Amino acid sequence: MLFSENELNNIKREMGKLKDNIVLKLFTDFKTQEDGTKLRRCMACEATYELLKMLEDLSNEKLEIEEISTEENEELAKKFNVTKIPAILFVDENDKEIIRYLAHPTGSEFIPFLNSIQYFSGVRPYYADQILTHLKKISKSNMKIFITPTCPYCPATVPVLTLFALVSKGKISAEVIDVNLNPDIGMKYQVQGVPMTVINEKEVIHGMFTPQDLLDKLVGSKDRDFGGMYA
Amino acid sequence: MFNIDMESIDLEKIYDLIVLGGGPAAIGCAIYAARFAMDVLVVGKTFGGLIATTHIVENYPAITSISGQGLMDMFKDHMDSLNIPYISDAIRSIDKVDDHFELHSFFQKFKAYSICISTGTERRKLGVPGEEEFAGRGVSYCATCDGPFFKDKIVCVIGGSDSAAKEALFLAQNTKKVYIIYRGEEIRAEPINKKRVYENDKIEIIYKTKIVEIKGDNTVKSVIFDNGKEFDIDGVFIEIGSTPNSDVAKSIGVETNVKGEIKINRKSETNIPGIFAAGDVADAPFKQAITGVSEGVIAAYSAFDYVKEMNIEY
Ligand SMILES: Cc1cc2nc3c(=O)[nH]c(=O)nc-3n(C[C@H](O)[C@H](O)[C@H](O)COP(=O)(O)OP(=O)(O)OC[C@H]3O[C@@H](n4cnc5c(N)ncnc54)[C@H](O)[C@@H]3O)c2cc1C
Do A192 and B5 touch (CB under 8 A)? Predict the structure, then answer.
């Protein structure tokens, strides 16, 4: 991915806001060559690795990218239930999963991804207090959001899910799935429109929504009739 | 950068100008306001606005051809270069308190001496049985989002505007066949797009026809026309215009016309001093990205004048 000088400066500035040291796990298909170099056959893996490495380089050593090969380390892949690559995992110190990206977070998905990294490292998100206030009323949940790189509503919706996942420290976990990279998962969930969000394998929301909408949905507020928007 | 963290903004501060929206009109306004050295904050529900949903823009002066998303990326870069803060949030109501306004989202209160409302529009729904049931399962409001799911399938676009024509042209790139279903007698697209539609072998127009129902099982299978005929189809793209997002303006008594569009004058002023409006939410007869930007820029200038007149001590 090519960034302009101005963009790189902005990214550097934003990475400079990281607070705690964090690790992201990146699962790819690399094979270590005799000379020690890593060869990745999957193109999206190579591109995702390069993107994450660039963020690591701009992070003043706050961000560490731990690349794990599903080919060379089947055990870890199994432990984290990784069957698709590339997969980026935000996990806590007890290996509890918070966010799973089955996507290459580039183009307009890049900024929401960068924001997630910031929040993961302790930057206080805008809606944190409101979500925390209601957290007790929300049961353990999983949310999957299906996206494509060309969908303009997706970058506005992905951060809503990842925000809840990060603030709830994984009580509400989020999976971001690019259906172009994972057509089989798209088929399984019969995705014909994006963004599409599946909550606890039951409820489906088409279109985008705000943090308040999702909070209402998770808390089970009955007084608002809410469907996804295309505003 | 967006979704800025709370530490970077000051909720106690009274901004010179708060711009509502994340589309071309809002960003145009914010860029000028920043260059007038105003303390400006942009609060938008989403970034990019409606233009980001179109695959190609060929009428924004100085840019021959670009995707809607690409155009808004350029807006974003320009905004970034001026360090204009942006918050992703939806404003629900506005109150006047002493010499300033208070803007309420679900969770936060923002304060400003002046406001530019550029909240655009929301896609109009067809309102027929099956539309809601099959949303995301064959019914779509965004070709760039969902077009790729209909590769080699047969789809229809409902509507006869320039936007509908452009959606049909985009869909024709990958689908087997696109029907434009329009209740009128002649599509109202820009001549250049009309010509492209006519010349495209994959596109066929069905005139003087309305859809009264969308049917299917798991996904859309057919539509029923107002003449009773059932027509087999895999996807229905609804492009029948939009309604203005003016509820927030109405909450403080901003005047709107019968369509719900905010009434503005040539200075982008509304009936309430200090509140300006721009873009698709306002009452101009022709709505485009460039006209929205223009109204937004004028709103910035008028807001600058308004705040200057207030003689606020900095
Ligand atoms: C398919 C299609 C193709 C088009 N092609 C072209 C083209 O080629 N050239 C062209 O010039 N125009 C084109 N248009 C028209 C163009 O998209 C609009 O004129 C333009 O986007 C209007 O800009 P705006 O900023 O006024 O509103 P919008 O772009 O609609 O933006 C409104 C913004 O306000 C936000 N918002 C809404 N409510 C709130 C709230 N309560 N609080 C905070 N924020 C809120 C929204 O999230 C959004 O960010 C096209 C439109 C369509 C549908």
Answer: no
Indicate whether residue B59 lines ligand 1 (CB < 6 A).
yes
The answer to whether the CB of B161 is under 6 A from ligand 1 is no
| pTM given for the model | 0.85
Which residues fall within 8 angstroms of residue B204, CB to CB, at 6 or more apart? B177, B178, B179, B180
* ipTM summary value: 0.77
pLDDT tens digits for A190-214?
Answer: 999 999 999 999 999 988 888 878 8
Pair B111, B35: CB distance under 8 Å = no
Architecture of domain A5-219: 3-Layer(aba) Sandwich (3.40)
Distance A224 CA to ligand 1 centre (A): 26
The end-to-end CA distance of chain B, in Å, is 26
Domains and CATH numbers, chain B: 6-122+242-309 (3.50.50.60), 125-238 (3.50.50.60)
SS3 A224: coil
**Number of Cβ pairs < 8 A linking chain A and chain B:** 134
Residue A163 has pLDDT above 50, yes or no: yes
Q: Where are the domains of chain A?
A: 5-219
- Rounded to 5 degrees, what are φ and ψ at A170? 90, -5
* Interface test mutation site (partner B, options A123, A126, A209, max chain B beta carbons within 10 A): A126
Closest residue by Cα to residue A152 from A230, A226, A45, A39: A230
- Output the six-digit token pair for B180: 């434009």
Q: Which residues of A touch B6 (CB under 8 A)?
A: 124-126, 128
Query: Are B42 and B82 spatial neighbours (Cβ–Cβ below 8 Å)?
Result: no
